Amino acid sequence: MTGKPSKLHPRTPHDWEQLIERYYAGETSLREEEELRRYLFSKESGDRYNDTRAVLSFTETGRRIATPRPPMHKSRRVALHTWMSAAACIALVLGGSIAYMTVPRNTCVAYVYGEKQTDPEVVIEQMRQSVSQFASTDDVTVESQLDAIFSPLENQP
């Protein structure tokens, strides 16, 4: 009974063995392979057919991988290409901006009398002049400052 099983005569374990042998020999129809697959992946088959179950899974996976996908319509392909181009442009602009912002630029900038100076020598000279104005004050001590604060009070009648 290796042909079609009927509802009245279900397959016996011997019939399943013969069908498995025919499957390995490549003599089964697609309907028989589907029936075998349903049986082997059901609870009825048990652990006895684990090796055949593995082979069926492997061939099914290969069949799914090898089956070509339906070709994309030209309009979808053009739309996909447009989106990919836009994404690439955005990535390029972002990458360039990030690179520009993170690159160190050793620039000296000072505003002298409202004019921007970027020459390092001019900026350093201006800085020295500003610091020298503060450093050249007379010897200011705490006592002289306190005298300056409280002396007006002593002069009052």
Give the ordered list of helices and strands: HHHHEEHH
Side by side, the strands of the main sheet go: 1-2
Helical segment count: 6
Mean pLDDT, to the nearest integer, reads 81
Please provide the count of β strands. 2
Strand coverage percent: under 5%
Quick overview of this protein structure:
63% of the residues lie in helices and 4% in strands.
Kindly describe this structure.
By secondary structure, this protein is mostly helical. Among the domains are: 13-66, no CATH class; 105-137, no CATH class. It has six helices and two strands. A two-stranded antiparallel sheet has the order 1-2. A hairpin with a 2-residue loop joins strand 1 and strand 2 (115-117). The mean pLDDT is 81.
Topology:
Layout: H1 13-25, H2 30-40, H3 50-66, H4 74-102, E1 110-112, E2 115-117, H5 120-135, H6 142-154
Key attributes of the depicted protein:
about 160 residues, mainly alpha, two-stranded antiparallel ribbon, 6 helices, 2 strands, about 65% helix, elongated
